[in-house]
Structure formats: C-alpha cells, structure tokens
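[audit] Reproducing an earlier prediction to check determinism. Same input, same settings, fresh worker. If the tokens differ from the archived copy the diff job will pick it up downstream; this log only records the rerun itself.
[audit] input (148 residues):
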Amino acid sequence: MRGKDVRFSQWLNVWFYGVFSVLFFSGVIWLVVHNAGTVGTEGEGFDGQVSPLEPWLLKIHGAAAMGSLVILGVLIPSHMQRAWQLKRNHFPTVAIVGLCLLMAISGYGLYYCGSDAWRAWISGFHSVAGCALPLVLVWHIFSGRKRK
C-alpha cells in the first residue's frame, strides 16, 4: 500500500478471500448438514443422528476463524488505519469491524457457554450474523471503491 492507496496487496487479497471463504462456507455447510432432515431430537438431523461431517466442519470453521483473526490483526495497522486517516468509508468500516467483533465474541460463547438456553440464542445470533457478514463486506468494498 503506497500513498493514498488502501487496497490490499495481491498476497493479502488471496489470504483474505481464501480464509473468509473457508470460514463462510464451512459455517453454511455446517448449518445445512446440522439441520438437514431433522426428525429426532432438536438439533440432530439424519433421523436423530449427528452427521459425521459436523465435527470436521466445526474444526475447519474454528481453524478458519483463528486465521481470520490474524488477518484482521494485519489489516488494523495497514488497511484500516490508513483509510481512517484519509477519512474514507467510516460507516461501513465500523459496521464490518463491529460485526466481526460480535462474531468473535459469539463464537467464543458457542465454544465455552455451558447453558443450553444461552447456547441456542448465541447460535441463532452467530448464524444470522455470519450469513450477513458477506453482505456487509460487499457494502464495504463497493462504498470504498465508489469514494475513490
């Protein structure tokens, strides 16, 4: 990034879209598999049995979540700080950073929360927010390009 340019380097572009794609699709596929053909007890698809894909999807999702936090940490001093100083794209930036923060907090809650009632609520929030994240990202990208 040089001068007033806040675009990602090619390397960061590949890592960002790769990690966030794995994060998004592993979460969406887990939602589909988890809720597919739910006949048995709540939250168990496949005629009451948990799919053998679910643990693997959650492991992939968790690893991608850790990678996304590293990438967001890289973006703070480079992309975000420079754009903020140039007074570019503030509202979409606050929206996407806030949503990423809520996703990290709710992901932590899903992993460590012991209460079934809280876990169901956190899971619903995390799922809706996770599905909304690509839309907020697209808004952020297009509004940033529009301002140039």
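[audit] rerun output stored. Observation attached for the diff report: The chain has two domains: 8-82, 87-148.
[audit] end
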